[in-house]
Design goal:
10-stranded mixed beta sheet, about 30% helix
């Protein structure tokens, strides 16, 4: 008889969302024009029509929210599985090979003959913040057939990555199925989901444990939250407070203080609400406090996948029982490592590497509101 092991069984996660093929072109600054606005935080890459533009590199990788977050947790030592859809094409084979190479279970990766595997073409230059052309393809058709009860059974975590079109209509059903299976439920909805299905999303969000959105996505919810909770700023913050706390959130002609917004979202159900704000750091509202953690210095080769790395690392660390501050530190370190590569997963850190970087990290100033 085998001796009992003192090593705990690895945690198990399920990741629902997209599987994509990312074609990434890096273009030298002298071969593409950039136009930026002074009064709006937007910039545009401009290509000359009819011109063949030299690229520094063009490479192909596997991405998509479900795949990216599953690989992140597999590197962390979790047993991760994916629910997503691909076409019956060569790109589907590349997705399966990528998941197998990263020890992610592809049992519930469904194939369809009616749509192609999703593809994204990313053009990056200057600051490497890519413009992305997206054909979502098979990712838009997640339905009842893909949501097998066996996939949810025994999961410690079900993470719902951004869903597209008809797949977004399944959000409430996915949340309910994950909750019924006894899993921690986290979601990182995309802007299209939040703007086209706001009421349905907020209703289903009552059953979430962790909700993660970026600042732009948060501002897409401002009209609905302000209508329900009322507009108004937060109390005047202390000197030196992070910019988003002083500025608040605005969208659709409405304005609301950041803390009011976070409290209103948490009151709807989620135990944790995270708002990421790029280089301005991230906010995490939880049962005991609202915390801000700065972004950490990083050499940026590409920004795609940083949000997936942050969200999945933060959620996994919270599930494992790390403190909110330690969870945010690990999330920031992992997302900072991801942007050091052009693709979305090669920079993801293993658990030992991430813990070593966290232990060696210079203390940073956090902010509690």
């Amino acid at each position: 008889m085998a001796e009992p092991s003192d090593t705990p069984a690895p945690r198990r996660s399920l990741h629902v969302g997209s599987a994509m093929i990312d074609v990434i072109a890096i273009v030298a600054a002298e071969n593409i024009e950039r136009m930026s606005f002074s009064n709006d935080a937007k910039s545009f890459l401009m290509l000359e029509a009819g011109r063949k533009v030299p690229a520094q590199s063009i490479s192909t990788h596997v991405g998509g929210g479900a795949c990216n977050t599953a690989v992140a947790l597999a590197r962390r030592g979790w047993q991760a599985a994916v629910i997503a859809r691909v076409g019956r094409d060569l790109n589907a084979g590349a997705v399966r090979e990528h998941l197998a190479a990263n020890e992610v279970d592809a049992t519930w990766l469904a194939e369809t003959g009616t749509a192609a595997t999703g593809t994204a073409v990313m053009v990056a230059s200057h600051d490497r913040n890519a413009s992305i052309f997206v054909h979502r393809g098979a990712n838009e058709g997640i339905g009842d057939a893909e949501l097998a009860a066996e996939a949810f059974a025994g999961r410690d975590l079900v993470h719902i990555a951004p869903l597209s079109s008809r797949s977004a209509d399944q959000f409430g059903a996915i949340v309910a199925q994950a909750r019924a299976a006894g899993a921690t439920v986290s979601a990182n909805p995309g802007i299209r989901h939040l703007t086209s299905r706001t009421a349905a999303f907020l209703e289903a969000a009552a059953a979430l444990d962790v909700l993660s959105i970026n600042r732009v996505e948060a501002e897409a919810l401002v009209p609905a939250m302000a209508a329900a909770e009322g507009e108004g700023p937060d109390p005047l913050p202390a000197s030196g407070a992070p910019p988003l706390l002083s500025r608040g959130l605005s969208g659709g002609g409405f304005q609301i203080g950041l803390l009011r917004f976070l409290a209103a979202l948490r009151a709807r159900g989620p135990r944790w609400v995270c708002i990421t704000d790029g280089t301005e750091g991230a906010w995490l509202a939880g049962p005991d406090a609202t915390l801000w953690h700065p972004s950490l210095p990083a050499t940026v080769a590409g920004t795609a996948g940083a949000g997936d790395a942050y969200t999945s690392t933060l959620t996994a660390a919270l599930v494992e029982g790390l403190s909110p501050t330690d969870a945010m530190l690990q999330a920031s370190l992992n997302s900072g490592s991801v942007v050091g590569a052009v693709d979305t997963t090669s920079g993801l850190l293993s658990r030992p590497a991430l813990e070593a970087r966290a232990a060696a990290a210079v203390a940073v100033s956090t902010f509690a509101a």
